[in-house]
Amino acid sequence: MLWATVDVWPELEQAVLVEASASVRKIGQSLAVGAIAARADWVAGDATIDLDGLGPADLVSAAYVLDEIAPASLPKLVGGLWRLTADTLLVVEPGTPAGWQRILAVRSQLIEAGAHVSAPCPHEAPCPLVPPDWCHFSRRVARSRLHRLAKDADVPWEDEKFIYLAASRQPAPVRAARVIAPPKTGSGKAALKLCQPDGSAGERLLSKRDGEVFKSARRADWGDTLA
């Protein structure tokens, strides 16, 4: 998550990383040396019990953490993360039905605490999706040679499915529909499954007659917004 944050905000000055594993901290520190300009403080601790000594931050993130935590401990963890959040809290989980359910639980708790959902939902209404459907996204990532060997894989890439929630202390300035499935495009047409600001979700079929909206739809990718 540190590297992703620096990619988006290269001006980042400081980051605090909480990690229980000494070996992971050691690897992270060695990888960050010379590669990350920001000051990175690696803190030994369990995120479920060792957050009280930390100060607030503009961005607080927890990536692929919730599935390692006992369900009974999740509300306390989420509450602790939100107390540390000066502006935005970002939670990322595997893009599985179980990961989606964990994100929904986090979403409900944060909304009850007064948070505003920034993404991916364009609303704070209940999620309109019903199992077996679930909200998730996908990004194609490159596999290194070591990664391919570890997974006994031949293809130099994989599609990483994930689900996330960004919650803010501030209301979202603009609400735009979110593309929540791979777009289907054809000759003069584009079909997008959209989560709408009114709390609904469904497929919208656009054609050349829709003008600029159609052009935007043709360029839209899974996870993008559509005004």
Describe this structure as you would to a colleague:
This protein is an alpha+beta fold. The chain has two domains: 46-173, Rossmann fold; 176-227. It is built from six helices and twelve strands. It has helices at 2-8, 22-32, 74-84, 97-112, 145-151, 212-219, and strands spanning 14-19, 39-44, 57-63, 85-94, 116-119, 137-142, 157-168, 177-179, 184-186, 189-195, 201-207, 225-226. Strands 3, 4, 5, 6 and 7 form a five-stranded mixed sheet that branches. Strand 10 (189-195) and strand 11 form a beta hairpin.
Q: Notable features of this structure?
A:
Rossmann fold
Brief write-up:
The chain has 227 residues and is an alpha+beta fold. 26% of the residues lie in helices and 32% in strands.
- SS content category: alpha+beta
Separation of termini? 29 Å
CATH class of the largest domain: Alpha Beta
CATH architecture of the largest domain: 3-Layer(aba) Sandwich
How are the elements arranged and paired?
Layout lengths: L1 H7 L5 E6 L2 H11 L6 E6 L12 E7 L10 H11 E10 L2 H16 L3 E4 L17 E6 L2 H7 L5 E12 L8 E3 L4 E3 L2 E7 L5 E7 L4 H8 L5 E2 L1
Parallel strand pairs: 1-2, 3-4
Antiparallel strand pairs: 4-7, 5-7, 6-7, 8-10, 8-12, 9-10, 10-11
